[in-house]
Sequence to fold (340 residues):
Amino acid sequence: MNIHALEAWYEKNHRKLSFRESKDPYIIWISEIMLQQTQVETVLPFFERFKDKYPNVSKLAQANEEELQKDVEGLGYYRRFRNMHLAAKKIVSDYKGIFPNQYKDLISLPGIGKYTAGAIMSIAYDKPYSALDGNVIRVLSRYLGIDLDMRQEKNKKKLDEINQSYIELAKPNIYTQAMMELGALICSPKQPKCELCPLQNHCDAYHHDRIDQLPVLSKLKDKKLFLYITLILNTGDGYYLRKRDEELLKGMYEYPQYDAENIQYVLTELEAQDIIVELIDSSPTLYKHVFTHQIWMMETYFARVLKGKKDDWIKIDRNAIKDIPMAVAHRKIKLYDKIK
Ligand code: SF4
Fold:
């Protein structure tokens, strides 16, 4: 690979993103975690607010967990932020608040895998550690003409080894960012701008007209469909919500919802527990939310609680609902004005 041409291209053409201009491992860490599965444009405003509020690892370690979840509401994949909080606490307790600069220490922190550790080591500390993300997989699969399925770990591992051999010949800080940026700006999934690419001369896919076929990514399993009965429960002076303890969206608030066939079944179940709920409107509103691996269809009823409550229902004032961390799936449910 003409690494020199790649690095020169990066120096001249990269976007001036604030986290790309930094060599602070803390900044690189939070930006890389936010960028996982999330577009740069979506991340930018969150990142700026986040780094102003939590400018260093000690401040992040001291964060209130619920407030932290509210700060990242809308980014999805919330487990990454719970892990980030745990990792910050560990850096404070085990490393006196000084960000580790050894790969083995980074990889032992919650939520930091091979990619993130490689990104921090190379970008912050200029050490040759491969960071293979989706963009880099695409660039290398095409450049080298590799038609192995990149959903398979063993194939990704092979590509990671090749990437490692390249970074050892490069300026690590520039190389990692250049590969990420090339994948984002030039070697895009559809209609890559090969005429502007510094790797075009030796690109296998370009010269053999196979760009559309690479990388090979086998089809993901179909998303699982969940049909929920969702209750907006008015208490007279607030609403009942619950805090999720399921792994998906753990710690986020939601309106109580039930994996049930119909509303009558739910009402009967509640009644058996001495909880009386009266529907305000018997025609539900249907909401849909698509996650990476799940689809939620939520048949949503507005109701009044006349008697009793479940242990995990928490009363929240209507005006406070906007301030609690809530998954977008439920944030999109509109509270009707007819419910006072
Ligand atoms: S020449 Fe085209 S396909 Fe090959 S690496 Fe560059 S942008 Fe990607």
Notes: The two ends are 66 Å apart (CA to CA). The CA atoms of residues 150 and 156 lie 6 Å apart. The longest helix spans residues 79-95.
